[in-house]
Each structure stands twice: as C-alpha cells, then as structure tokens.
Specification:
Blueprint lengths: L1 E14 L2 E14 L3 E5 L6 H8 L7 E6 L4 H6 L3 E4 L11 H12 L3 H14 L15 H13 L5 E5 L7 H18 L2 E6 L2 H7 L2 E5 L6 E6 L14 H18 L3
Parallel strand pairs: 3-7, 3-8, 5-6, 6-7
Antiparallel strand pairs: 1-2, 1-4, 8-9
Helix pairs in contact: 3-4, 3-5, 4-5, 7-8
C-alpha cells in the first residue's frame, strides 16, 4: 500500500537573486511500513522534499499525495509526526510537558495525555524522566524526547530531518539501534534525511540517492539486509557493498554539474 507518492515533482524558490531550482522531476512511492532514507550533498533538496510532504513548502509542479490526499489534508488529519534537526524542546516545560504539547493543542483529554506521555516515554527509553527539564538531559536524550513528542499522537508516518546529525558517533550509533527497535515495534512508515552513508545503509529498507541542486533521484537502492541489524553488521561485505553503491550514486550525481 502506497502512503506517500510524488509524481513529476518540481519546486523552484523565487529569490531576489533569481530562481533557485530545489527539486526537479522527482518520482517516488513510499509503501506502508517502509523505512526510506534520503541522502545527497548539502542543498540537494532532501529537507525540501520532506517539507513538501509535511505541507511546509508548496511544489511549483507535479503532485504529492499522503495517504491518498493532499499534504494539506494529511497535515490537518495529523497523519505524520515531524522530528527536526534540533530537538526544539521548550526549556521552561518539563520533558513530559513538552511531549504533551501537541496533545494539548489537539484537545486530548487529560487522562489520555497522561497515558500517551507515559507510553511514548517508554518507547524511547526515557521512563522516569518526565519531570526533568531539557537542560537536565544530554543531547541524545533531548532528541529522544523530540521523537517521543512526534510519536505522542500516534501518527502512522514519521518524518525525520537529520535528527542525529549533531550528535557524537557513539551516541548516534546507540540512537540508530534504538530507532530500528522503535520502527520494528510500531510498524510506522519512516522518511529519514541523513548525510551519513553508514547511517542510511544501517537503517533503511530503501535508500534514495539524490543529486546536487536541482534535486533529482539518482538511484533507489533496495536494502537486502535482514531486519535484525546489530551494529557489527556494518563490517560485513554485504553492508560495504551497499555503501559503495550509495557512494557511486553520489559521485554519478555530481557528474551532472
């Protein structure tokens, strides 16, 4: 079942210095339960594509549908949760209150809010930290709280814009493992932006390789690795072969310049 579909998608920004062609002729279908990573050089339109899905940017050509509806209708139906590069937690609210915020806005009952906060904290392994403030948590824990906030209203789609990019390698590895476990438990459809080839290969069912601006899809790599993925898998020939294909795709994309 296709939950996200882009057909001949174009997006051009009009600026004082002239037009900027962010996306060009992007065609992609994302199936229910997929974990799709987008990788490419800075400025290639990875985040822009995510923002189009989320109705934060409007395409100038082609179409995008989310659950068979427009991005605007999907946004109003709370079809997705969005995790940004920075955790974006309000420092004056506790972790529990930060996670509760979208539930308050959506009008969930107090009892339902309490239950959902408890459940999502457990999902991201932050049980017991509900009354802490963001400054009392490490960067990795703050980002897990941000993921919990996006999960709180139980949307089927999770859009993640390079959520681990600012973290050190050890923390990033740990959160990669946790994210795979979370995906396995929830069955959500995840669209994930990254600059890291190993991260894209480790996490994804499919890897979307994009060219420099204007962003085009250079390659769609189906990942044959098993669902159970210990970190040691990254040292295997199978893993390295996929990583090499991603790197080759990125090099091929630069040849369009």
């Amino acid at each position: 079942m296709t939950v996200i579909s882009a057909q001949n998608l174009d997006l051009t920004f009009q600026t004082n210095d002239g037009p900027i062609h962010a996306l060009k002729d992007v065609n992609l279908n994302v199936a229910k339960g997929d974990f799709v990573s987008f990788i490419g050089p800075s400025g290639c339109g990875k985040t822009t594509f995510l923002r189009v899905i989320a109705d934060l940017e409007q395409p100038t050509g082609g179409t995008v549908t989310v659950n068979g509806t427009s991005p605007e209708e999907a946004r109003l139906a709370r079809a997705y949760g969005y995790v940004f590069q920075a955790a974006g937690l309000y420092p004056w609210r506790t972790i529990g209150a930060n996670i509760r915020l979208p539930l308050e806005i959506m009008g969930y009952s107090r009892v339902d809010q309490v239950e959902r906060v408890k459940r999502t904290l457990a999902l991201v392994e932050l049980s017991g930290f509900e009354k802490k403030f963001p400054w009392q948590l490490s960067g990795g824990m703050q980002q897990r709280a941000s993921i919990a906030r996006a999960l709180a209203f139980d949307a089927d789609i999770l859009l993640m814009d390079e959520p681990f990019g600012a973290l050190d390698e050890i923390v990033r590895d740990h959160l990669n493992e946790q994210l795979l476990q979370l995906w396995a438990r929830t069955g959500k459809t995840i669209c994930f932006v990254t600059h890291s080839i190993p991260e894209a290969v480790y996490l994804s069912t499919r890897i979307i390789v994009m060219s420099p601006r204007p962003g085009r899809i250079i390659d769609v790599i189906k990942n044959p690795l098993p669902k159970e993925r210990p970190l040691e898998l990254r040292d295997t020939p199978e893993f390295l072969n996929i990583a090499h294909r991603v790197r080759d795709g990125l090099r091929a994309g630069h040849s369009y310049d």
